Amino acid sequence: MSESKQLHSIDEKLDKLSINDQKDVYKILNGVGFQSLALPDTAKEYAKINNLELAGYEYPSKVEQLRSPRIVKIGAFQNKLPLKTDAPIAQMRDALYKLALEAITMASLAEVNVFCFQEAWTMPFAFCTREKQPWCEYAESAENGPTIKFLQNLAKQHNMVIISPILERDETHGDLIWNTAVVIDNYGDILGKHRKNHIPRVGDFNESTYYFEGNTGHPVFQTEFGKIAINICYGRHHPLNWLMFGINGAEIVFNPSATVGELSEPLWGIEARNAAIANGYFTVAINRVGTEIFPNEFTSGNGKPAHKDFGHFYGSSYVAAPDGSRTVGLSRINSGLLVVKVDLNTCRQIKDHWGFQMTQRLDMYAEALQKATNLNYEPQLIIKK
Ligand SMILES: NC(=O)NCCC(=O)O
C-alpha cells in the first residue's frame, strides 16, 4: 500500500464517535490512568513549524505521606527516514542529526527528562537486504562514535538523559557489530550500554546476518530521573527478558523498535502493556515510521516475488503504566514526539495493590526452568491411562 493510503491511526477513527461513546470506548480500550497533558505553547509551535507530531499525557500521581513524588517526563521519538535509503552515509547521518536536533529541542521545550529514539535510529533498517555494504559502514563506537559525541553535548545542554539505540562497532574487540542502546546521562556522560538480547529470525528481519545476541545481561541504569532499562525491539516477545529488567529494579523500560504492519501490528499494543502490568514498571514502546525502499531486490523466503521494500513501519508509539493503562499512540504515519509525565512512586503503589511480585514464585520457576533446560527433560504431561 502506498504511504498516502496508510491509515493515520486507530484513534483518528475513534474520533468519529460521539464524545460520550468515545469516553466509554477509551475507558475500556486504554484504561483510566492517563489524561491529556497541557504542553507549553513554545513546544507546540516548534512542532508545527518543523512539521512534527507532538502529544502529551500524564498519569496523575497519588500523594504518599512519607515519600515525595518523583515526577519524570518521558519523551519517545518516532521517525521516518529523511532521505532515500541509498543516500550517501554522511548525508543520511547529517539529515538524521538535523531531525534529532529538532526532536531534542522540542523535547526540551516540553521539559522532557528522559528521551529515547527508535531502534537503530541513525540508519535505514537495511538488515532485510542481507547485504554487508554499504550498511555495515553505519556501525560506530558506542563510546566515541560521532552519534554519541553529538548527543553528549545535547544531553548536557538540556539536562536530559538520552537513550540512543545504534548499530555498534566494537573496535576494541574484533570490530564486531552489535545492536546497542547507549545511555547518556543528563551531564553528558555515558552511563553504559545494553546490547539487544534476542535477534529476530522472522520475515525480512535478517539481523542475525549482522550481529549476535547481546552479552550485556539486563542492566538497569540509575539516573537522576529514575531507574531505567532498555529492551530492544524483538526482546519484547520474550517475557523473561522483561522480567529480568524488573528484577533488577527498573522503573521505566524503553522498547525502541523497528517493526512492520504485516508482521506485528496486532501484537504491538499488547506486549509492552502486558510487561508493564506483570513487572510493575512503566513501558515505552517506540516504533519507526514509513516505508523504506532499498536499491536491490531481496526475497523473504516465502515463495513470493523478490521486492525492494520492507513494508510499512507503523509508528504508533505509546506508554503503558503498571496498572495496564496506556496512552493513545502517536500516528502510524508521521514523525513525532510523545511526552508522558509520570510519578515513579506509582510503581510501588501498584505493586502493593496487585501483589504480583509478592506472588510470583520465582524459586519454583527457577527450579522448573533448570530442569527444563536439561537435554533429558521429560515434559510434565499427564496422559489418561
Ligand atoms: N527489529 C526487530 O527486532 N524487529 C523484529 C520484528 C518484531 O519484533 O516485530
TrEMBL record:
Pfam families documented for this protein: CN_hydrolase
GO molecular function list: beta-ureidopropionase activity
Biological pathway: Amino-acid biosynthesis; beta-alanine biosynthesis
Keyword Metal-binding: no
Record-linked SUPFAM superfamilies: Carbon-nitrogen hydrolase
Single Gene Ontology BP annotation: beta-alanine biosynthetic process via 3-ureidopropionate
Presence of the UniProt keyword Hydrolase in the record: yes
EC number of the protein: 3.5.1.6
Domain of life: Eukaryota
Protein keywords: Hydrolase
Catalytic activity entry: 3-(carbamoylamino)-2-methylpropanoate + H2O + 2 H(+) = (R)-3-amino-2-methylpropanoate + NH4(+) + CO2; 3-(carbamoylamino)propanoate + H2O + 2 H(+) = beta-alanine + NH4(+) + CO2
CN hydrolase domain span: 72-344
Transmembrane intervals: none
Family in the record: Belongs to the carbon-nitrogen hydrolase superfamily. BUP family.
This protein's name: Beta-ureidopropionase
